[in-house]
Design goal:
By secondary structure, the chain is of the alpha/beta class. It contains 13 helices and 7 strands. It has a 4-stranded parallel β-sheet, with helices on one face. It has a 3-stranded antiparallel β-sheet with strand order 4-5-6, with no helix packed on it. A hairpin with a 5-residue loop joins strand 5 and strand 6. Belongs to the FMO family. This is Flavin-containing monooxygenase.
């Protein structure tokens, strides 16, 4: 614990004040030389990279994870645990591997383009091992309380009480900053309906749904249209009985479609969680500009025109934000230039014995470049 700021009314005379001022100055020097201690709560997708980023900035992270594993909701378990999010057994991520990977650690080319949850977890473990992150994680450790210190206005520090889940031992700690990486899926959002308590059947939340076993030949109603709900509906449709369903009128369905379209046009839908969605490129550029990592495509065009064109016309993958600025990565260029190779690799399950000639590849590249430029000009002149 460090107490660096003290008020002058604590001193009895000028000598005491000079002594404390000298000690305070020495403490400040020590603080400059010693890294700030950062508490990271949770070691899922966000917690892992939070640890890595702290290390990149010369900070001292300590991560508290209440389970005995990394991965957060991507660590599948057969049984549901209250307060612990978990994917379904069949869950496949809905973002391609080149768009979802950490910006300085490409996903192996052998992995599927859209990965099953088991591959997502494998990738997290590879990332953790590659950067040596596990030694900064305290597993089976609950954060009991988190509050600002009495001198927070001057020190910016936090009081954290933790509890070991095995021994029950509690410990009080002080940190210079806290990163909360627990996600927003841990707690259930359970709707209520009139007379739901009188329903004779089984009612569960998608957090408790694991697979379709036990639902064979049953009449099932799935409420909601989020990712989990959609996955459950598709999977259950293969085993459930086909009950008689009365559809709304055509006009009612069209009214609903128009309503949803208008809501999406305003960037938000009526959902507890989807209000956090943003435009990917604009959001990433905004964050990168704050951190000094936004790629300067004009400067890049003069220095490396091939790479600049690939960044402008290609997918805006995370590697672009490692090309320049703080914590840039020397492998970013290679990752960008080979991202399609890693994308196509898992599709080559049946080699045909021949490859496309380079002259043909050049033709296709120029052709698609022309189409893209034409579409951009038409949009700029007639649709903007």
């Amino acid at each position: 614990m460090r107490y660096n700021i003290v008020k002058s009314n604590f001193y009895n005379d000028e000598t005491d004040m000079l002594t404390v001022q000298r000690e305070t100055s020495e403490n400040r020097c020590k603080n400059i030389l010693s890294p700030k201690r950062i508490a990271v709560i949770g070691v899922g997708a966000s917690g892992l990279t939070a640890i890595k980023c702290c290390l990149d900035e010369g900070l001292e992270p300590v991560c508290f994870e209440r389970t005995d594993h990394i991965g957060g909701l991507w660590y599948y378990t057969d049984s549901a645990v209250d307060g612990q999010a978990c994917v379904m057994k069949s869950t496949v991520i809905n973002t391609s591997k080149e768009m979802m990977c950490y910006s300085d650690f490409p996903i192996p080319k052998e992995y599927p383009i859209f990965m099953h949850n088991s591959y997502v977890l494998k990738y997290f473990n590879l990332y953790c091992k590659n950067f040596g992150l596990k030694k900064y994680i305290k597993f089976k450790t609950m954060v009991v309380s988190l509050r600002k210190r009495p001198d927070f206005a001057s020190s910016g520090q936090w009081d954290i009480q933790i509890r070991n889940r095995d021994s029950g031992e509690k410990q009080d700690l002080v940190f210079d900053a806290v990163m909360i990486c627990t996600g927003h899926h841990a707690e259930k959002n359970m709707p209520t309906f009139p007379s739901l308590d009188k329903f004779k059947g089984k009612v569960i939340h998608s957090n408790n749904y694991k697979d379709s076993r036990g639902y064979e030949d049953k009449r099932i109603v799935v409420v909601g249209i989020g990712n989990s709900c959609g996955d459950a509906a598709v999977e259950l449709s293969r085993v459930a009985s086909q009950g008689d369903v009365k559809l709304p009128t055509s006009q009612e369905m069209w009214d609903d479609i128009h309503f949803k379209s208008d809501a999406m046009a305003k960037r938000y839908v009526k959902s507890q969680r989807h209000t956090i969605q943003v435009d990917y490129v604009d959001y990433m550029d905004e964050i990168a500009e704050i951190g000094g990592n936004k790629p300067d495509l004009y400067a890049l065009l003069k220095k490396d025109p091939k790479l600049a064109l690939r960044c402008f016309f290609g997918a805006c993958t995370p590697y672009q934000y490692r090309l320049m600025g703080p914590n840039s990565w020397t492998g970013a260029r290679e990752a960008i230039m080979t991202q399609w190779d890693r994308t196509c690799y898992p599709l080559k399950t049946r080699p045909l014995g021949f490859e496309i000639e380079k002259s043909q590849l050049k033709f296709f590249f120029i052709y698609f470049l022309f189409i893209a430029m034409f579409a951009f000009i038409v949009h700029y002149l007639f649709m903007s």
